[in-house]
Amino acid sequence: MSESMQGPSYPEREPSPLEKYPPMEDLPLKPPTYWPAVTMHFAPDTYQALVELAEGGSIADALRDAIALSKWFKDVRESGAEVLIERNRKLRRVVKIR
User: Fold this and answer.
1) Which whole-number Å values give the CA distances from 49 to 17, 42, 63, 66, in the listed order?
2) 91 neighbors 83 (Cβ within 8 angstroms)
3) Domain map of the chain by residue range?
4) Alpha-carbon distance 2 to 77, whole Å?
């Protein structure tokens, strides 16, 4: 077949970020030179709360702290333990955090 009948040739497609990097479970324990990126959209009031949680630090750190706290709370509850808060000299059980 002649070259004019083959149609146009296209350059090779760049792999997507998900194709470039290994799955999370295959990542080493030490921080690699990259981290998978996540894009999120927040409602204005949620974003403002996040900025307040960051306390002048990075929003990424505030998100990491929130995720770590949520994971800890879940692990505690799944182990059968309870999380208690003392307010006005009374103990109250935390049932959910979200």
Assistant:
1) 30, 10, 11, 11
2) no
3) 10-94
4) 70
pLDDT digits (tens, 9 = 90+) for 28-39: 666 656 667 788
Backbone φ, ψ for residue 96 (5° rounding):
-140, 155
Q: What is the pLDDT of residues 71-84, one digit of tens each?
A: 998 898 889 898 89
92 touches 85 (CB < 8 A): yes
Q: Buried b vs exposed e over 27-57: b needs ≥16 C-beta within 10 Å?
A: eeeeeeeeeeeeeeeeeeeeeeeeeeeeeee
CA dist 55 and 36 (Å) reads 25
Contact 36, 17 (CB under 8 A): yes
